[in-house]
Amino acid sequence: MTPTVVLPVIIGGLYAAGVYLLLDRSLTRVLLGFLLLGNATNLLLLSSGGAAGSAPILGYGDPEEMSDPLPQALILTAIVITFGIAAFVLALIYRSWRLVRQEVVGVDEEDRRVARRSGMDADEIDPDDLAPEDRPAMHADTLAADDDAERGLARHYSGIASDDVDLPTPRSNP
Amino acid sequence: MISVLTPLPVLLPLLGAAAALLVGGRHPGIQRTLSILVLSAVLAVSVALLLLADADGAHAVSVGGWTVPLGIVLVVDRLSALMLVVAATVALGVLVFAVGQGAADGDEETPISIFHPTFLVLIAGVANAFLAGDLFNLYVGFEILLTASYVLLTLGGSAPRIRAGITYIIVSLLSSLIFLAAIGLVYASTGTVNMAQLAVRLAELPDGTQLLLQSMLLIAFSIKAAVFPLSAWLPDSYPTAPAPVTAVFAGLLTKVGVYAIIRTQTLLFPGGALDQVLMWAALATMVIGILGAVAQTDIRRILSFTLVSHIGYMVFGIALASTAGLAGAIFYVVHHIAIQTTLFLVAGLVERQGGSTSVDRLGGLAKASPLLAVLYFVPAMNLAGIPPFSGFIGKLGLLEAGVADGGSLPIVLVGGGALTSLLTLLAISRVWNRAFWRPPAQSPADDTFRAAAEAAGPQLAPGPMPGPADEQQPASEKQPAGAGTATGNGSGSRAEARRAAWERHTAVATATAPVSDGLDAGDGSRERPLRPLPQVMVASTAAMVVLTVGLTALAGPLYAVAERGAEDLMDRTPYISSVFGGEDVP
């Protein structure tokens, strides 16, 4: 039996698509990317056992013609782990949606605050602060909707302070 | 004897977790007692394993009685036994701290019935990773501890924790997938995942294949260990979790990654092909990590960055690939697990006492609570490596090993290590100066926050506020409920969430006021007595501080064990022959 080229091609394609989705800011896409990467890795494990053969262990065929059972056992374990974690991530996404009506990866406020102190680095390359045409593809809509929501809130609560008001500037070091 | 004991550090916490889940929230007392008993038993077993392994050398146990290359093998040698002992010790200390916190806060608001089983599962995963004798079992150990850590990190499900948790989970998943793919490639090229067998078979592969496998494993483990440039996730995700969770994460989880790096570099790939790369990574981790710490103003974030930075010392020791370097790295791992856990517990106490972990808002803690000041000062000096403490001994050992190596790059790293040590001292003494030492009236945020609080909600400002730290937890619990039930309208419920968050914010701000009012003679109306810190929490933190000081007293024997462990690692034969019983490796 000779190895097939189909598996490597599928594995490569799944990895490429998975990485692409994983780089998105939308959490559902990230989850889908993770699932694709998980399946690609499972296929990689499967192909590591060599060419396919008859059912192992049961003794239906000559030991030389049997498939290697170990990668299959590893894959079963990996599938269970991937499944459980995917369910957990789904629950997290749902929770995130309930809390902030967003399912994108949030910004780290503390990081921004530290970055603002120097006023010269990270903030300037943050996609939120770029002009819409400079933003990475696929993000303009999400962020625009977010900005609209922010402006609506600002109008609504213009009378009172809001929680993302700038914190007082820290004292400079003595 | 040792064959019976070896699986117990994995089995006991798993069974204990099942039992703790059974008694559930209905009998919190039984659950707490059970968890503490289980972890105490794990600690006792680990100490016994260390004594046996140190006396007799490495020992392997075939789980289920399968012959060696086929079944799962658990291997206990000096390194893994030592790691087990430290892990069990800090886990026990943190658990007692968490029990004290739960008792002080009232358990109704937090899903404490989940906390104990998950914590035990986490320890089972850590123990499994330390004992694993094959790569796939190591992967399973990582997954057990990571899955438990996902739950612990997002405990309560408040918005900041979900945000931090998602970053953490995605990065961890990615590293696990890289690890799994590496296992697939290792199996494809050698036909085994047993580490002792791999130690022999990997050496027969072509150099390029070896290099690919080694770099994939190192990348996967470096993400888990937070080695720069794969460390950005850590300071982003750790600080939001509850204090005990952050403490055990900071202490243990990254060190499991370091342990895996040690195994990869010594047992699987002893050729030292990537030592230069690791040296540069170690230098960057040390210096960039500590520069991050200097820039921060939040105590937990400062500690998270020092955690990243000091991983660099351990990687340095590993990259030296000498017995002295490895011994220094092992000792430093032991020291750092204890010290980092302790400091995060102290940060939890600071938050409870001062109502914040930001050094801009804290002040006068040394006067308000001298005991807390001592509890911070001793481990902080230890972390910076001030002479009598174990941090100094560990750093000295590593730097000496670097000088003894004689190369020019190790000398650069020795300089970087010394610089990092000084900058660590700067970072932690800034916390000391501002949070503990400066007169509280200087706190600049005080008036601003009080004014903001009165403007935002008059009902919040007067009257006794609930204590700072325990009201923060319930408030974050209420917020999602408010957000969820408010309206179906999107912006409406988001507004509710924002209002709740603002109320929590002001509550924290006003709660910091009493600390400042101690010296604010002109304004007597807001004076109120400080809440005493819960005794169990203080006692467990104090016990951990005593333990870190005890590491100094026990440094002699401990360093001797580390050196013997390092000799075993460099030699490799004790590990391999323990698995194959002295026969030829198939």
UniProtKB/TrEMBL annotation, chain A:
The entry's keywords: Cell membrane, Membrane, Transmembrane, Transmembrane helix
Bias-annotated ranges (Acidic residues): 121-131
Transmembrane region(s): 6-23, 30-53, 73-94
Main subcellular localisation: membrane
Protein name: Multisubunit sodium/proton antiporter, MrpC subunit
The family this protein is said to belong to: Belongs to the CPA3 antiporters (TC 2.A.63) subunit C family.
Lineage start: Bacteria, Bacillati, Actinomycetota, Actinomycetes, Geodermatophilales
Localisation per UniProt entry: Cell membrane
Any one of the GO CC terms: plasma membrane
PANTHER family: ANTIPORTER SUBUNIT MNHC2-RELATED (PTHR34583:SF2)
Span list, region Disordered: 115-145, 155-174
Topology class, membrane: Multi-pass membrane protein
From TrEMBL, chain B:
Record-linked InterPro entries: CPA3_Na-H_Antiporter_D (IPR050586), NADH_UbQ_OxRdtase (IPR003918), ND/Mrp_TM (IPR001750)
Region of interest (Disordered), residue spans: 457-530
Molecular function (Gene Ontology), one example: NADH dehydrogenase (ubiquinone) activity
Top-level division of the source organism's lineage: Bacteria
GO BP: ATP synthesis coupled electron transport
Biased segments, Basic and acidic residues type: 495-506
Membrane spanning residue stretches: 30-51, 82-100, 112-132, 138-156, 168-188, 211-234, 241-262, 277-295, 302-323, 329-350, 371-389, 409-428, 536-560
Bilayer topology term: Multi-pass membrane protein
Keyword field: Cell membrane, Membrane, Transmembrane, Transmembrane helix
Positions of the NADH:quinone oxidoreductase/Mrp antiporter transmembrane domain: 132-415
Pfam family, one: Proton_antipo_M
Keyword Repressor found: no
Annotated signal peptide: none
Localization, UniProt: Cell membrane; Membrane
Keyword Transmembrane helix recorded: yes
CC terms in the record's Gene Ontology section: plasma membrane
PANTHER family reported for this sequence: NA(+)_H(+) ANTIPORTER SUBUNIT D1 (PTHR42703:SF1), NADH DEHYDROGENASE (PTHR42703)
Family stated for the protein in its record: Belongs to the CPA3 antiporters (TC 2.A.63) subunit D family.
Protein name, UniProt field: Multisubunit sodium/proton antiporter, MrpD subunit
Organism: Blastococcus mobilis
